[in-house]
Queue: 2 jobs
Job 1
Amino acid sequence: MAIKQFKTESKKMLDMMINSVYTNKEIFLRELISNASDAIDKRYFRSLTDSSLGLAREEYGITIAVDKDNRTITVSDNGCGMTAEDLENNLGTIAHSDSGEFKGENKDENISIIGQFGVGFYSAFMVSSKIVVTTKALLGDTAYKWESEGVEGYTITECDKDTVGTEIVMYLKEDAENETYSEFMDAFRIQSLIRKYSDYIRYPIRMNVETSVPKEKAEGDNSQPEYETIVENRTLNSMVPLWHRKASDVTDEEYAEFYKGRFYDTAPPVRTIHAKMEGNVEYEMLLFIPQNAPYDYYSKDYEKGLQLYSDGVMIMEKCADLLPDYFNFIRGVVDSSDLTLNISRETLQQNYQVKTIAKSIEKKIKNELLKLQKENREKYEDFWKSFGAQIKFGVYNNYGINKEALQDLLVFRCTSGERFITLKEYVEAMPESQKAVYYAFAESAELAMKLPRTQAVLEKGFDVFLLTDDIDEFALGAINMYSDKPFKNVTAGDLDISTEDEKDALKKANEEYNEMFVAMQETLEGKVKAVRFSGSLGDNPISLSSEGYISAEMAKILSRMPGNEMFAHADMALEINLNHKLSDTLKTLFAENKEKFDLYTKILYAQARQISGLETENPVDLTNMICQLMTD
Ligand code: ADP
């Protein structure tokens, strides 16, 4: 029988498994058992429409057998089995290995990838030097044997097997100096692995376990008891899904193991929500808020969804209708006996139960996030760095329809400290004289802090949110105000932070020098909508401010979004600090030296653009103008 080659990518992955430095080799058992359980599920499903294909409920099961003499571990199931074609397709290729993620070179990276995917069947090669799979499919006449010693390839031959199902024999690798494989033949070890990873599997996982029991004694015999070894066929798993158990009986470690194993994360969840809901629709939910975004979270391949069960039987791997887009990072399980087994994707959306469940799940998630925000701000900030953008997008999306539900989840950095704060916290700390919620936007918090107009607001003793995410300003724009306090971009329009006297003085000065400002506007060829004095620039000489709804930053972002170019224009005003010596210089030049006045105006405008983070329109001209000044 000719040896067949694995597909290239599968070969790489297999090679990685065989030479794995992954420390968590023990997961191989979990993977095989989960496959066995899936296979039994499949057979069970098919027997719903054709009862001749099924077994009695109590006959389904998974068996583990150890043969110490031959150094083998065998996992058998009476599930759906595989045809020769299935063997070829399923074990010759690995589902995820065509993703190109596996470079096979950087070991550390690969390890974290092993953790992120369920690497499934191939993980058995971490502990085995040879694997033999014997299987017979439902309705199949012939049984087949798949055999492989690793990257060299595999063979598929016909063989004898009476019953439908699959048997996987692993020939354990020889123990090496710092790697022992014999431990996996130890009954205790196997039992504890099953308890750790596979306890909730719904079918019994049985194994013959040797135990020593006291021999029976005659009545009145007070001598030391003698022991004998008997072989007991034990069921190793409790078969109760974790979510069926009472939350108070489940430890954090159990939740973490379950989460990591099932959702392929290497870190434990930030929070776990486990609840049994009663009412119109009865169901259990076990939800997890992850710490880190999965590797594909920001790609278009990412699919949201929760695993949907009907009384312990999985009916859908990813039920998208249970989660709103802005909570698409939540992982978990929903189980309701009110759902019928044959619910289809099409009927799901209209399904009353699913809608009800989705609504209450959303509420639960939000409350849990608010709780985390209150109890552990540092952890919340970590969470926020991974998923905050998604929630901000939720605020802004669909014309802000969800803004009220989500606004209290938002946190931003601000000028008053390192910690991120909420809108509520900001508003509650506002001094009475402050009328608006101020925010500044720049590439980094440090730059936002240094903006002239940020400084002016700070001088008044008001806090300023420092925004750095493209979506931030759009999200705040959608909310518009909080607790009756309007949001104000520090670089837009009138900041309204001056006293009445200051306002009067400013108004007067602006009227008096109107002619000068018109001249400057002409010099700038209409690039600015206005030029004026400002009293709100702190120590800084100049600033650009925007006049309408679209700020300079928004215009920049919009210009990068196809189809939005026409909105990508901000009307700008050039502001000169009335209290800065520069204002006197300009006044004098306007009266005495028109040529220099023009030159100054152009340079000031170019500098103001730079301060606002806008690109320099013509760097060569600017340099020449500055040099002209220097050499005058
Ligand atoms: P995954 O389980 O993520 O699909 P695996 O590599 O573990 O990846 O398995 C590949 C495929 O092989 C499975 O999807 C399934 O179709 C098939 N398979 C594996 N183990 C069994 C089994 N015990 N019985 C029937 N089919 C199996």
Job 2
Amino acid sequence: MKKKITLIGAGQIGGTLAHLIAIKGLANVVLFDVAEGIAKGKALDIAQSSPIEGFNVNLRGTNNYEDTKNSDVIIITAGVPRKPGMSRDDLLGINLKIIKEVALGIKKTSPDAFVICITNPLDVIVMALQKYSGLPKNKVVGMAGILDSSRLIYFLSEKLNIEASKIKSFVLGGHGDTMVAMLNHTKVDGEPIKNLVKSGKILEEDLNKLVDRTKKGGAEIVKYLEKGSAFYAPASAGVEMAESFIKDLKKELPCAAYLNGEYGVKDIYAGVPVIIGKNGVEKVVEIKLSSDEKDQFNKSIKAVQDLFEAAKKIDNNLK
Ligand code: APR
């Protein structure tokens, strides 16, 4: 039987998620949005491409949680995106309220689902989502690291004129300006990036610029779009996580996961490599960090913790 993926939020990312899932034939799709017309219209529009694309999945739009019942996967993008000049953190107050409503909705209808959160500010919103819903921590995870890593890999491939599939790299920590690019774990065609710096194939200064561009990757797109934030690459990243769960691929992917002592951190969500399989987050993979990476990672965790303190001030129930 086909699996069921519910997309809470049928905006830019939600619509793109639906399109990608349909084209891949990954699962039946329910698009849920408070703006019912958007959900219904996008579901119908994508469904009408099935004779051309040749996919065979059901798509429906709704504003009723009953229709999302017993979903295998739920991907949440409900919320407000950034406008030029805003940081992700500026979205906290409004998106916290929205996520509370969503958490209560999915808790009632799909308590066994694997839940992927994309709404920003990511790490704090996914933490709040887990607390509000009470769903198991290994079943509630945030999408950010795959996107940030993909941005870095793309920038490197463009700079070095090498196809992206030959580059391995990842970005950890919080999904904000403090994210940490793992340069010691970055390889180009199997060769550590540090060697490419030594041999002059890329200047250290240029490499640092690419890392900085990655950190500001979301803002760069917000500035171009003016009316919203990135949606194609975020949707691709969300689908990779859903696919690893549905097909039990056990891929190692950088995601915002609950940390319970791993990396020396307790009781907070942040970006780390995890294994995603049929049981959700099956393992947090602990890689060795250099002392500089460790310092940067801890700074990033502190930024997430501080923002969670701010969230607690907005809603006293968040303990
Ligand atoms: N329940 C369901 N849907 C909601 C709710 C709610 N309580 N509140 C808002 N929405 C819907 C809106 O109606 C809108 O269609 O969420 C959708 C969000 O879509 P966009 O505004 O197009 O935003 P998008 O670009 O998809 O980004 C969504 O993901 O990456 C983050 O920062 C981004 O927080 C933002 C989120």
